[in-house]
Amino acid sequence: MSQKRVAILISGGGSNMTALIRSMTADHPARVVLVVSNVADAGGLAKAQAEGVTTACVDHRSFKGDRAAFEAALNAKLKAASPDIICLAGFMRILSAEFIAMWQGKMLNIHPSLLPKYRGLDTHQRALDACEKDHGCTVHEVTAELDGGPVLAQTRIKIEPGDTADSLSARVLKAEHALYPKVLRDFATKTSAT
Ligand code: GRF
Q: How far apart are CA 41 and CA 5, in angstroms?
């Protein structure tokens, strides 16, 4: 069985990226071929290099607001690596419908809420403000609708009395690190069969 090629897009610390990379052992249906950051000093870049993964940076700021040019440069990096699957892992740029269409059905994202609740930012504080009993994380396919693509899997966690956005975020992040590798494995297996 040939392993599916995975590219991971990051903007920050890359803890989900690290969980994904470490899950792709020799007998895994997928292997990581590239990590790309849109932020030059993203902590995840050094972590990926420490794992022996090829990295690239396409710094959105150097395109001075020209999103089409930024996405063309990002797409060129991706195309050169020929990924079968692209995992967004804390990638904080909104991608255009045109860009997403080029990779539709191949792009996954992890989001720190139980979608369709709390799309966008500040999900932990918003869940607390709404006095939710549960919170969690979701892996979904990426479509042009922000955080709106088909849900592949979710992990639900209880909100405890005294939780803050930070304590909740830490528990959700731990759940993310378990969920995303599991979904990637299933997705790569399914993709391999077609
Ligand atoms: C995660 O909570 C992810 O769901 C969200 O941003 C955070 C990124 O963390 N989109 P990391 O970079 O994977 O550590």
A: 25
| Angstrom distances, CA of residue 136 to CA of 14, 66, 133 | 19, 34, 11
Answer whether 110 contacts ligand 1 (Cβ < 6 A).
yes
The band of 194, judged by pLDDT with boundaries at 50, 70 and 90, is very low
Of 60, 111, 135, 140, which is the active-site residue?
111
- Residue 147 and residue 145: Cα distance in Å, rounded? 6
Q: Judge whether 169 and 126 are in contact, CB under 8 Å.
A: no
Q: Give, using CA atoms, the residue closest to atom 12 of ligand 1.
A: 14
The structure tokens listed for 140 are: 């979904």
Q: Determine the pLDDT at residue 1.
A: 65
Q: Is the CB of 112 under 6 A from ligand 1?
A: yes
Residue having the nearest C-alpha atom to atom 8 of ligand 1: 90
**Which residue has a Cα nearest atom 9 of ligand 1?**
90
Is this model's pTM higher than 0.90 or not? yes
Quote the CA–CA distance of 81 and 5 in Å, as a whole number: 8
Residue 28 has pLDDT above 90, yes or no: yes
Is residue 111 among the annotated active site residues?
Answer: yes
